[in-house]
């Protein structure tokens, strides 16, 4: 079964350890000069793809990212982890700010068809917008089965057994390839990106127009604000006081 | 292939191991009987506990891949990047092909760069004559220069006349991290192979003793030194010449000094610690382009140091402020961090910060040795540039321009040798002695020579004020041409007095508005390390912290570390005295800790910095 090809989508997000600041004009958060890295769930997806390749179940792993020029750093990290090729769908910085799951899903669907892949792997959600939509929408566009929140992925012939983490516990699905899988936290522990892997690989740059995808968004951001400051709590001595206080602030 | 051998040798190995245990641990047991506290094992690094004797490493594949380049540069700071850019500029101009690889420990270029910073743009403009068109972030020309001497309540203004080192006319206030990041982009555009996130951990040597290149750090090691499932060896990068631009007190440079005896004819380096914060202030207090320096309170005249406050002009009302403290301070109760917090409450500083918000914190070590402490700069196979050997102009508190120039000169000298037709080298690694000669003939040398006596002149009876008088007479009037060269008063650590001879300092509690405590500051620095990795600091002797540092000096490492890395549990229970080294850290933490610890250095101790296995810094 070493003829399978995998497309892994990765996103460049603000690093999880950074303290986020809202821009003074309230149109977004400060991204200039702030540390960015690969979305943690995307790292897990790349790791899974590379592991499948090491088990000789997959022939080629292609890493793709949509966005401005800096996305190439993220693709390079994926290459350093073991992906074979990188594709950068170049979007100018102004448009990149309005890029949402719907647009990315269109791009991924077109790429998946163009590259004739059998499996599309993504992280379950990005830590900057927490949308949790791209994988599902991509499956929708392609009309492929999907296994989201995967905590275990096993290849059985031409079928994929996916164990999903859902609210009630664990659900196991069997999907016929080609399929879309999104990675959840406990799928694996990503490896370190090592230097020898980066040095020899190239990244191909294409424009969304080449894929025939229109990136216009019907959403616009009105304002971004800090969450309200937490006020100090009030301590009360007895339950009667508690009830009185609650009545006072109109809660009961 | 290795397995059957391992099986055969395993038995024999285990016998040897058992014998060695007796040899290594028996003396330790003996000391345990005699001392009142046990010596915990803090250090796990393989330079102290070699891996070939460690059972946990048996059978682990230690093979390393190697890559060949023409020049490898360690460190992507102003010096390293200047060298890289210059090499490629020359290569393009002369139509030659040179492979330049740059390794940098930070995950992003510029992430570990910390400086005031007030940049003298001479060297920068030489490297990038079209910097404005290219959009270099030099956005804030200096418009106002102020200097003051602080007492506890007042500020005595001192006029900054042209010719004094503190005069900043023509300079720019920059965010050096952003500038370095921009330089990184230029380097990449020119074809330099830039590898952020990979630290050089080891120097490699040819059989003839010359430098062969470097190896990057191994990843996937547990806190106790054992390998993880994700363990992978680093990569070897071989080069004809290796440029070491590690910054202040680099750990590879330390090894090179020893191996090539580079410090035979210079004084020991002396250091300072610089703490910095970035604040968004109220617009009515914002004066873009203003440069403010003070000396005096809260430091006494025998403690070298001073503060800076720069108003940046980058769209929002941002100020960069900080305190530099010379590490030759005498009182082990001094805490540079708390002095900095205390300084912000001064009546002339506080109003600027009121109503503002602190958004960043960091610290770094600086070299203060200047001219007298510059070591030999070249050796077979490599050379040193930037703050690593140390070219900071101490009274001007600027080292970036000289670092950049040293990088440029290194690149030019290397390029000449690499492309010269009749190259005959005695060693496999090239020895570029031309670099040191060129540096000695450049303005860097003249500049450092003219200010060489200012820092040592602060050791007199009048302390820092004596230094200022000396500057006024000998530098301002005579331009540093006096025939004598003052010496430093030995290494920083020799100046520290025992705790019993000093009075503890009562620091005010942080108020959470202007001043802050250490832990929240470290959290703000954005440093984040994976828990299960070895400590970044290695002690040569694990018993020193309790037996020497605590007993004689009352554990000054708890006070001098701006990241709270050292934590002595003697505060909780005097009986169970031990010290742990946590993996806190800041921008420049690795170098910082190392240099600061040199205040306690002696032949028997010390702190080595080992490069962390996989950095997850900010």
UniProtKB/TrEMBL annotation, chain B:
<feature type="domain" description="ETF-QO/FixC ubiquinone-binding">
    <location>
        <begin position="271"/>
        <end position="366"/>
    </location>
</feature>
<dbReference type="Pfam" id="PF01946">
    <property type="entry name" value="Thi4"/>
</dbReference>
<comment type="function">
    <text>Accepts electrons from ETF and reduces ubiquinone.</text>
</comment>
<dbReference type="GO" id="GO:0046872">
    <property type="term" value="F:metal ion binding"/>
</dbReference>
<dbReference type="GO" id="GO:0051539">
    <property type="term" value="F:4 iron, 4 sulfur cluster binding"/>
</dbReference>
<feature type="domain" description="ETF-QO/FixX C-terminal">
    <location>
        <begin position="512"/>
        <end position="583"/>
    </location>
</feature>
<dbReference type="GO" id="GO:0005739">
    <property type="term" value="C:mitochondrion"/>
</dbReference>
<dbReference type="Pfam" id="PF05187">
    <property type="entry name" value="Fer4_ETF_QO"/>
</dbReference>
<dbReference type="GO" id="GO:0005654">
    <property type="term" value="C:nucleoplasm"/>
</dbReference>
<keyword id="KW-0285">Flavoprotein</keyword>
<keyword id="KW-0408">Iron</keyword>
<dbReference type="InterPro" id="IPR040156">
    <property type="entry name" value="ETF-QO"/>
</dbReference>
<dbReference type="Pfam" id="PF21162">
    <property type="entry name" value="ETFQO_UQ-bd"/>
</dbReference>
<keyword id="KW-0411">Iron-sulfur</keyword>
<keyword id="KW-0560">Oxidoreductase</keyword>
<dbReference type="InterPro" id="IPR049398">
    <property type="entry name" value="ETF-QO/FixC_UQ-bd"/>
</dbReference>
<keyword id="KW-0249">Electron transport</keyword>
<keyword id="KW-0274">FAD</keyword>
<protein>
    <recommendedName>
        <fullName>Electron transfer flavoprotein-ubiquinone oxidoreductase</fullName>
        <ecNumber>1.5.5.1</ecNumber>
    </recommendedName>
</protein>
<keyword id="KW-0830">Ubiquinone</keyword>
<keyword id="KW-0813">Transport</keyword>
<dbReference type="InterPro" id="IPR036188">
    <property type="entry name" value="FAD/NAD-bd_sf"/>
</dbReference>
<keyword id="KW-0479">Metal-binding</keyword>
<dbReference type="GO" id="GO:0005829">
    <property type="term" value="C:cytosol"/>
</dbReference>
<dbReference type="InterPro" id="IPR007859">
    <property type="entry name" value="ETF-QO/FixX_C"/>
</dbReference>
<dbReference type="GO" id="GO:0004174">
    <property type="term" value="F:electron-transferring-flavoprotein dehydrogenase activity"/>
</dbReference>
């Amino acid at each position: 079964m070493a003829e399978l090809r995998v497309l892994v989508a990765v996103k460049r997000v603000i690093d999880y350890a950074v303290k986020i600041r809202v821009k003074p004009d309230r149109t977004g958060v400060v991204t200039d000069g702030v540390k960015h890295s690969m979305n943690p769930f995307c790292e897990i997806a790349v790791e899974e793809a590379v592991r499948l390749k090491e088990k000789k179940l997959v022939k080629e792993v292609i890493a793709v990212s949509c966005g401005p020029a800096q996305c190439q750093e993220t693709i390079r990290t994926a290459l350093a982890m073991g992906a074979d090729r990188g594709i950068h769908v170049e979007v100018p910085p102004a448009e990149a700010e309005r890029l949402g799951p719907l647009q990315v899903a269109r791009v991924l669907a077109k790429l998946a068809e163009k590259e004739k892949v059998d499996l599309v792997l993504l992280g379950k959600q990005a830590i900057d917008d927490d949308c949790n939509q791209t994988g599902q929408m991509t499956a929708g566009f392609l009309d492929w089965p999907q296994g989201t929140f995967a905590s275990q992925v096993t290849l059985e012939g031409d079928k994929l057994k996916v164990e999903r983490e859902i609210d009630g516990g664990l659900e196991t699905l069997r999907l016929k390839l080609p399929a879309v899988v999104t990675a959840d936290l406990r799928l694996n522990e990503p490896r370190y990106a090592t230097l020898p892997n980066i040095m020899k690989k190239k990244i191909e740059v294409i424009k969304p127009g080449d894929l025939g995808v229109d990136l216009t968004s019907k959403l616009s951001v009105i304002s971004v604000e800090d969450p309200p400051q937490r006020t100090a709590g009030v301590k009360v001595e007895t339950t009667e006081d508690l009830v009185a206080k609650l009545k006072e602030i109109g809660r009961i | 292939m290795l397995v059957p051998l391992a099986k055969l040798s395993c038995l024999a190995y285990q016998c040897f191991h058992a014998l060695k245990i007796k040899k290594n641990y028996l003396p330790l047991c003996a000391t345990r009987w005699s001392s009142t506290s046990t010596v915990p094992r803090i250090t796990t690094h393989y330079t102290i506990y070699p891996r070939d004797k460690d059972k946990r490493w048996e059978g682990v594949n230690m093979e390393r891949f190697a890559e060949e380049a023409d020049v490898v540069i360690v460190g992507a700071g102003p010096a390293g990047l200047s060298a890289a850019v210059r090499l490629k500029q020359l290569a393009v101009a002369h139509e030659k092909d040179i492979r330049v690889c740059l390794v940098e420990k930070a995950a992003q270029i510029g992430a570990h760069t910390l400086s005031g910073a007030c940049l003298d743009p001479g060297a920068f403009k030489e490297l990038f004559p079209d910097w404005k068109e290219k959009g270099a972030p030099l956005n804030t020309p200096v418009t106002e220069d102020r200097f003051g001497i602080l007492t506890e309540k007042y500020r005595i203004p001192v006029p900054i006349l042209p010719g004094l080192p503190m005069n900043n006319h023509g300079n720019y206030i920059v965010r050096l991290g952003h500038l370095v990041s921009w330089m990184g982009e230029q380097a990449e555009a020119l074809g330099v192979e830039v590898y952020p996130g990979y630290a050089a951990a080891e120097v490699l040597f040819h059989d003839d003793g010359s430098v062969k290149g470097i190896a990057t750090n191994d990843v996937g090691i547990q806190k106790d030194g054992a390998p993880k499932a994700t363990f992978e060896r680093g990569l070897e990068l071989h080069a004809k010449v290796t440029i070491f631009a590690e910054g202040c007190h680099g750990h590879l440079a330390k090894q090179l000094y020893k191996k090539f005896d580079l410090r035979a004819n210079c004084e020991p380096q002396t250091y300072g610690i610089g703490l910095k914060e970035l604040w968004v202030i109220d617009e009515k207090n914002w004066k873009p382009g203003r440069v403010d320096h003070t000396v005096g309170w809260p430091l006494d005249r025998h403690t070298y140091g001073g503060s800076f406050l720069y108003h940046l002009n980058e769209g929002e009302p941002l100020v960069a402020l900080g305190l530099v403290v010379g590490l030759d301070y005498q009182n082990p109760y001094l805490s540079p961090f708390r002095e900095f917090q205390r300084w912000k409450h001064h009546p002339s500083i506080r109003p600027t910060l009121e109503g503002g918000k602190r958004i960043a914190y960091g610290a770094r070590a600086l070299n203060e040795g200047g001219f007298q402490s510059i070591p030999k700069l070249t050796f077979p196979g490599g050379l040193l540039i930037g703050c690593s050997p140390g070219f900071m102009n101490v009274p001007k508190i600027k080292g970036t321009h000289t670092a950049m120039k040293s990088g440029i000169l290194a690149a030019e000298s290397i390029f000449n040798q690499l492309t010269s037709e009749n190259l005959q080298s005695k060693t496999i690694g090239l020895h570029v002695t031309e670099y040191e000669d060129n540096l000695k003939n450049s303005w860097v040398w003249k500049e450092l020579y003219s200010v060489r006596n200012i820092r040592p002149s602060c050791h007199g009876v009048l302390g820092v004020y004596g230094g200022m008088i000396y500057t006024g007479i000998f530098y301002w009037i005579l331009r540093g041409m006096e025939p004598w060269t003052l010496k430093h008063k030995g290494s920083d650590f020799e100046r520290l007095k025992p705790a019993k001879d000093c009075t503890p300092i009562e620091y005010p509690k942080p108020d959470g508005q202007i001043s802050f405590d250490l832990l929240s500051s470290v959290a703000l620095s954005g440093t984040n390390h994976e828990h299960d990795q070895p400590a970044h600091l290695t002690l040569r002797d694990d018993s020193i912290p309790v037996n020497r540092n605590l007993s004689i000096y009352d554990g000054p490492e708890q006070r001098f570390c701006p990241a709270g890395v050292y934590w002595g549990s003697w505060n909780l229970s005097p009986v169970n005295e031990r010290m742990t080294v946590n993996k806190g850290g800041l921008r420049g933490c690795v170098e910082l800790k190392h240099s600061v610890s040199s205040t306690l250095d002696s032949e028997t101790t010390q702190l080595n910095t080992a490069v962390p296995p996989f950095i997850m810094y900010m």
